[in-house]
Amino acid sequence: MNKKILMTPGPTMVPEEVLEINGRQPMHHRTQEFYELFSGLNLNLKKIFKTKMEVMTLTASGTGAMEASVANLFSKGDKVLFATIGHFGERFYDIAKIYGLDAELLDFGWGNAVDLNVLEDKLKDGDYKALFITQNETSTGVTNDIKAAAETAGKYSIPVIVDAVSSLGGIPLEMDKWGVDVVITCSQKCFMSPPGLSFISLSERAWGMAEKSTLPKYYFDLKKARKGVMKEKPDTPYTPAVSTIMAAKRATDMLLSLGLDNVYKRQEDFGKKVRDYIKDIGLQLFPEECIASNLISAIKVPEDISASDIINYILEKHNILITGGQGRLKGKIIRIGHMGYVTEEMLEKTLNALKEAVLKLKK
Ligand SMILES: *Cc1c(COP(=O)(O)O)cnc(C)c1O
């Protein structure tokens, strides 16, 4: 049988040469060898985040950096707004509630994008300490316009915290230019690396907020992490996932040598290709096409077929893993991830397998 292909929203496929590095003996993290590796990674991260600020590497999945942003910037009772469009936006809101923030949910509904006029009305009167927003809502296959959202929040001087976990390195995001205060991402989605790391960067304004924050933090103390990054011989406060750092350094080298603009273009092509294909075979996209993600496609499940039958068929017959819906979309949609290390060939195989599954399973 062919090697398994992950067409999921993460973990995503990892190129062979990155896998090879990941399989080497780990480096010790207090050695010259590691300092050089980590400086290299830090430089790559700044280029991908499009920021002059430090980017901190945490040994945790994306959710770890989300939690770190809450714990480091705020104090109990701070009033904040969550513009949500799906599962991951709601997860962020849940984290804020756990930490005792006065978190307000502005829910645009699963399958929609944030409506900027509605958002603006809310921000205008709200007196919020921050706006939290997801760039690419992986659960619904919808992308928000972060540039416009940051502009809107900027009118009212409200800091913007962006969950770019499934989008940074796949679609444009310019942290400094767009005036985004916190950007969060991780290793296992667009970064072509194994899971284990999350990455987070804070603007000057966000560091100012961190100075005032009184919420407890220890492992996720970003000031400690920043100190490590700023050293001449940069390191992390605790033992990091060294192997994943080794892998992520190589993978981000690859990403940057491909050229981010070329990657963005390739993702646009992939998104369009999937959308055209599913229309051709009589399936429907879950969100409206104008807000559809170029990184992950959410597709409505035809009424006479079950989502899990489609997923199982494609896995058993073709060794390709796609995923179903999360939360309230379970059973209603299937999702094909096409972010990170996806080739034309992998995508074509997946689409052909989907077509075959639908034909075979139709009653
Ligand atoms: C994957 C993902 C996360 C975090 O997931 P982890 O499993 O913790 O890495 C957060 N937000 C979005 C939009 C995601 O796609």
Number of strands: 14
Q: What value does the average pLDDT take?
A: 97
- Taking all Cα atoms into account, the compactness measure Rg is 20 Å
SSE arrangement, N to C: EHHEHEHEHEEEHEHEEHHHHEHEEEH
What is the CATH class name of the largest domain?
Answer: Alpha Beta
Q: Which word captures the global form?
A: globular
Strand proportion: 15-25%
Structural class: alpha/beta
Q: How many domains make up the coordinates?
A: 2
- Enumerate how many helices there are, as a single number: 13
Q: Which consecutive residue ranges, at least 5 long each, have pLDDT under 50? A: none
Known CATH architecture of the largest domain? 3-Layer(aba) Sandwich
Oligomer: single chain
Q: CATH-wise, what's the superfamily of the largest domain?
A: Type I PLP-dependent aspartate aminotransferase-like (Major domain)
